[in-house]
Write a structure and sequence with these properties.
Distance between the termini: 36 Å
Strand order of the largest sheet: 4-5-33-32-31
Number of helices: 2
Oligomer: single chain
């Protein structure tokens, strides 16, 4: 059964502690899951949470960690759901503005409330998510229904009291950052100073202060005077995790630019330029399309940058600009299928990539609901499948293999029978544990290490 377009998940993001997980979908909704802290025994099977928006399944993840590591079980259950963006219409340009959530970014928790940024193509919103389990009673100027009383009827003064009530989780928009982007926003990134963040569209990157909604500062502008001379667009951007003056952005030409905001107010001149020389023997009609970078991520240490293009994931050292230090083939077997992938527009799919908490393993998605993991230390890699049909709660995910021509073994799948409508574009990794979230169309899968 084909899912409703509005239910298709468009972004997944753990918060800084990993206790909360947020997803955004094409219908403009944000669903937040909270980790329950109870410890499961062997007899207790993880619950399957079926929501009207998402279906959340828990399985076990083959571990890249040592067997002595202590595992803490805890289920992720729906904590809050709210409508973040609504469809709009730009009457000046006669353009419909989709409600689809492009990105979600959490702010570090400073008090009992949680804060997150969500964006569609044009507008970024800052949301406050807070709990309320008490309500005030005993107003002097209002009656119990909240209506104002006639001051002449007030003969005594009451001391208001707080009464317990059922726990309510409220999501309220605290700031709306609008009217700053002509083109579609593809990235938002919170700065390490936690006072500013940036939003990037195809041709410009803007710097915002969290307290100022009516003004942003343009820090990158690659729009040419004549749009016919346009040769590349910005595809992703991210701040350095520790240095608030440094950020990177990637382009559709397969290049990455590192910029330093201390050098100049407008960062049109990069500090470093990362590009891998093209092998002339591999040149083809599709070379430019498949070299376009769809995602860029700093490692937690800040020493490396990871980029994802159509066929590969690359790891770059900030101190070496001429070539990546590691290249991982995600689905090289699709090289012979590029013509049909171009015809069905799959070649333009934008896959994301993520680091694990220690920067030792990287993960990215593929087709047929497959996702790939690469261990940087052992150079092992594994293909896993996020699918309801062949996975049961507490089952161990089995590695999958794709067969290219020749005889096919029983446990292999032929490259010709891959389903390109099932794709893993969005994934997230818990900041400190081996727990991953994988968005497969309208299903969210949460996997974790096997508990011995």
């Amino acid at each position: 059964m084909k899912p409703f377009t509005a239910d298709i998940i468009s972004t997944v993001e753990f918060n800084h502690t990993g206790e909360l997980l947020a997803t955004g979908d094409k219908g403009g909704r944000v669903v937040i899951f909270q980790r329950e802290q109870e410890v499961c025994t062997e007899e207790q099977a993880p619950a399957v949470v079926l929501g009207s928006v998402l279906q959340v399944l828990k399985f076990n993840l083959p571990s890249f960690q040592s067997k002595n590591q202590v595992h803490r079980r805890g289920e992720y259950n729906v904590y809050s759901t709210f409508q973040s963006h609504e469809p709009e219409f730009d009457y000046l340009k006669s353009l419909e503005i989709e409600e689809k959530i492009n990105k979600i970014r959490w702010l570090p928790q400073q008090n009992a409330a949680y804060f997150l940024l969500s964006t569609n193509d044009k507008t970024v919103k800052l949301w406050k998510v807070s709990e309320r389990d008490k309500r005030p009673e005993g107003y002097n100027l209002k009656d119990e229904e909240g209506r104002l009383r006639d001051p002449a009827t007030i003969t005594t003064l009451r001391v208001p009291v707080l009464r317990p009530m059922d726990l309510m989780v409220e999501a309220t928009p605290r700031r709306v950052f609008a009217n700053a982007h002509t083109y579609h926003i593809n990235s938002i990134s919170v700065n390490s100073d936690y006072e500013t963040y940036m939003s990037a569209d195809d041709l410009r990157i803007n710097l915002w202060n969290f307290e100022i909604t009516n003004q942003s500062f343009n820090i990158v502008d690659i729009k040419p005077a004549n749009m016919e001379e346009l040769t590349e667009v910005i595809t992703a951007a991210e701040f350095h995790p520790h240095h608030c003056n440094t950020f990177v952005y990637s382009s559709s030409k397969g290049t990455i630019r590192l910029c330093d905001m201390r050098a100049s107010a407008l960062c049109d001149r990069h500090t470093k330029f990362f590009e891998e020389p093209e092998d002339p023997s591999n040149r083809s009609f599709f070379s430019e399309i498949i070299s376009s970078i769809s995602d860029v991520k700093f490692s937690h240490s800040g020493r490396y940058i990871m980029t994802r293009d159509y066929l590969t994931v690359k790891v770059w050292d900030l101190n070496m600009e001429n070539r990546p230090i590691e290249t991982y083939q995600v689905h090289d077997y699709l090289r012979s299928k590029l013509c049909s992938l171009y015809e069905n527009d799959c070649i333009f799919d934008k896959f994301e990539c993520v680091w694990n908490g220690s920067d030792s393993v990287i993960m990215t998605g593929s087709y047929n609901n497959f996702f790939r993991m690469f261990d940087r230390n052992t150079k092992r890699d594994v293909t896993l499948e996020a699918s309801r049909e062949n996975s049961k709660p507490r089952a161990i995910l089995k590695p999958r293999k794709v067969c290219v021509g020749g005889k096919r073994r029983k446990d292999e799948i032929s490259v010709d029978s891959l389903d390109f409508s099932k794709k893993i574009l969005h994934t997230a990794w818990h900041p400190s544990e081996n727990i991953i979230a994988v968005a497969a169309t309208n299903n969210l899968y949460i996997f974790q290490d096997k508990v011995n």
